[in-house]
Structures are given as structure tokens and as C-alpha cells.
Amino acid sequence: MDIGTATAAFASYSPVTLSGQVTSYLPLESTWPFSAGCSSQLLANDPGASVNFLFFGDPKYPNVVPGQPTCLPPQISPWWYQTPTSGVTPTTTLLGGYEFLCPEAYETVYRYTDTVTGSATTTIGCCPSSFTYVSTLYDYGQPYQCYSIAAPQIITYAQNFSTGAVVEYTITSTSLPSSSVILGVQINGYIFPGPTTTTSSSLTTSKTVGSGGSVTSTTSASISVSTSTNSDPASASTSTIAVSTRVSNTGLSTGAKAGIGVGVGLGIIAIIAILAAAFLYRRKRRARSSAAELEARTGKRNDSRPTAEMDSRVRKHEMDNSGQRHEMPAAGAYQYVPELASAKDERAATTVH
Prior knowledge:
Elements: E1 13-18, E2 21-28, E3 42-44, E4 54-56, H1 61-64, H2 76-80, E5 91-100, E6 106-113, E7 122-128, E8 132-133, E9 146-150, E10 154-160, E11 169-175, E12 180-184, E13 187-191, E14 196-209, E15 215-228, E16 237-249, H3 254-298, E17 334-335, E18 351-352
């Protein structure tokens, strides 16, 4: 029975070749959801009726037991059951890429970022939830990284009754007489730094003045983009884009154009000055004509100076008509009118009777 060996559909991180060994990576870019029924998927892979080990999270469980939910991402099966080649170009498959997320039914038990070698690669280890991590990361196909202790109980699992090439599993139950170890299939992988891109550009412009004042401008631009996706130097790619633009101007040279511009500007200023002078002369002539016509009619010279009028705000004084008479004082009754006192003669005012 095919348990899944295709890898091309999941590849998003370039294979790495190191010392003749080609390593491909399968990414886990999203958290695989937990489904009901996944917690009871136990397998006994040893053929026969005896139970030596029970395994939890075996990726082939939904393939050998019909009607069961798929509890792990499809990338796990080709990684777990792979058989590395050892020919001229040995190959292997690992989990990892620019993102690596444990399934929902798992938890991260190990995380380490390599800062010593400068690769900044992060190693991730995942165990089934509630399973114990043995403090050592194991490779694919070796389910000894995570375990759980099951108390004495009646347990249901899928037992291997395969004979020869015929793969057959049957659901059965057994009573655990004592505490038993259940091994959980681990999921380990890597997170690599994202691709780095280096861009360099150059721009060159040249001008050529030909006969008759024609100017030709040539602009050349060169852009070089280098992208490195992983630590493999062979994976780095460089692309260069060259752009050349040529602009021809068959008109006058720059100096000639500048001279024409100055001449046109001075001509405009001269025209404005002539128009202003003509306007002022015409206005002055019209004013003289109006003054002569007025003098001919009235016989008086038109003096533009304003005529003063009586201010209506000036208060008018009239004779008092109250009937009271004012007379001179009687003879002999004089009142001394004080004068300015000098510094040498000061005297008091007296009244003469």
C-alpha cells in the first residue's frame, strides 16, 4: 500500500548540495488542525498478536485503517518513511524552509537558533501534546524522542497482521496488566533565514555636439541583482539588466538657445516700455485739451485748487435777548486787578472806596 512518497508538491526551499549530498526540504507553513478521533490513533507495528510497542501519531494510520481522519500534514509521511539513497548523488529529505509550525496536536519541546556559525538556522523539535521529551532529538523513523506512560486499562489499537507483501491492520483491544510505554512520533525540522537580495546600479550619461549645433545625449544604466536563498553558494543567482537611451536634438546648441532667449526677453521689455510711454503721453495730451476748452467757455482759468467753504460745524454767536442789561460800575468803585508780581515788589491787593 502506498503511504505517500511524493515531495515535489511541497518543495519551496531550494535543495542544498553539500559534499555531494543533496538535501531537499519540505516546509510546514501552517498549523495542521486537530480532528476528533486523532487522540485514539494507536498502532502496533510488530506483526503478530503480541504488543511490544504502541505508537501514537504514526503518519500511515489513516492509510491502513479506513475511515480515519488525517491527523498530520502530508509532508510527514515521505519524511518519516524515506529511504535515503547512497548512489553517486546521495539524497535525503528533511522538514523545514522559511517557516516551520508544529501541528495543533503537537507542542514545541525544542528550539535552538545557531548563532555560532552565522547561519542563523533554527532547529525545531515537536512532540505530541502531553508526551514527555527525552531531551534528545531523534532522526526520522526513530520514535524514541517522545513517550507517555499509560496506566493499566483496556486499550484499543490497530494491530499489524501483515504476512509477506500483504499489509493488513486490524482494530483490536487488549488489557494492559501494568503501566505501559506509548511512543509518540516526533516531528523535527528547520527554519532558515529568508532570501537576501543585493542590488547595485550604475548610470552614465554622455553628450555629443555635432555639426550645425545638433546635440545627442546617450544615457546607459546597468542594474545588477544578486539573490541568495540559502547557505549553498551555488544557489546564488545574479541577473544584470542593461538599458541604453539615446536622445538626439537636431536644433540649435545650448549657447544658441540661450542667446535667443535673452534677445526675446529684451525685446519684450522694450515693447512694454514703448506702450507705457505712449499711454502716458496720450493721457497728458487729453488733460491739456480739456483745460483749454473750459477756459474758452468761461473766460477763467481752470484752477484745480479747491475753494474753501465755511465749515458748518462752526458755532454761531448771537445777541442775548434775555432783557438783562449790563452797565458800567459806579464811579469810585474800583477793584484792583492783580498784575504779575515782580521779584522786587510784592504787595497785597486792596480795595478803594
